[in-house]
Amino acid sequence: MSKHLLILGGGTAGTMMANHLRRRLPASEWRMTVVDRSDKHLYQPGFLFLPFGKYEESDIIRQTRDFIPRDVEFIQAEVDQITPESHTVTLKDGRELKYDLLIVATGCRTAPEETEGMLGPKWRVNVHDFYTLDGARALRDKLADFQGGRVVVHINEMPIKCPVAPLEFTFLADTFFRERGIRDKVTLTYVTPLSGAFTKPKAAKKLGHLLGDKGIELVTDFVAERVDQENDKLVCFDGREVPYDLLVTTPTNMGDEAVRRSALGDDLDFIPTQKHTLQSVEYPDVFVIGDATNLPASKAGSVAHFESETLADNIMLHIQGKPLKEEFDGHSNCFIESGNGKALLIDFNYEYEPHEGPFPFSFGPMKLLEESRLNHLGKLAFRHVYWNVLLKGWPLLGISRQKKKPADA
What we know:
This protein is an alpha/beta fold and 409 residues long.
């Protein structure tokens, strides 16, 4: 009788794992199932470009089933409860799925309800987000008619998906308003709970200088207590206030509601996960990947890609009863749009900060922590790589799952 590998989540991480493991697990011995609430697969990095009219919705939406191997069952349903003690997952429609091995790839969600006043009557009137498809659509319509005023880009708390995206939005907004000839009518302010523009000091310094060069105010250590929609102000716990005409916020990010219902997560519903093996801290037959984990790594597509390579190996080792590789090192790399048709590229892991130098080879052709047109083109080209290489679990040329030790480390 064949065994059952169940993957919860058909987004980036879940799709990659389905492709990795279908190639490695004999169909005669293992049947595989992917469960996701949506039949649409969204290219989430595209949400950044949609508000500025750089992408159309057709550029970022595909059918979930198209990227899952044919001999992997796909169930479109919402997960209600995960019960590792009985190796059971219950769906909202009442169906019960038994598994031998479980991979949780349920991602994370925005939770604007966690901040007092954010979901008031002006939500998606002059208080917007771009971390959801609906939010990016509404913001696109708002920006099309925006004639000037105080624009505040805000991070509510960390961690968030793609931690550089709010910065990128700010840089792209600066370019957008310049191209429309109204930059002199707009004040741009970037508000963050961090002590700098980014979590890593080297990158924070570089990005902070970019904000200053573009005339964008940086407000740090700002932990929002509430959104005062009546007076159009962000209010900090320490009493500071930031007024706005248009607030573009990144709400609190949390794990999937099913994690909370199953009492498997921390305070933000992220699942405690071994940081080097990706095995659940508590349940040996449960593995966690991508944004669903509580790992101190970026919640970004590149991280899920690197995790998937290690996790595929560890699933095979687990099945064979062998010790797992303690291999994943938190490796992340990402392009950072800096406006005016340029971008930076950063590469780091748990141990090493972003550093300067050629990438991905010793001769380049790209350069880390430097603005360039080539990096911007790389960012745009990544959409093609995502659909045709990354989701299918193929390796990326020259880019290892483990971060190379920088020369100046």
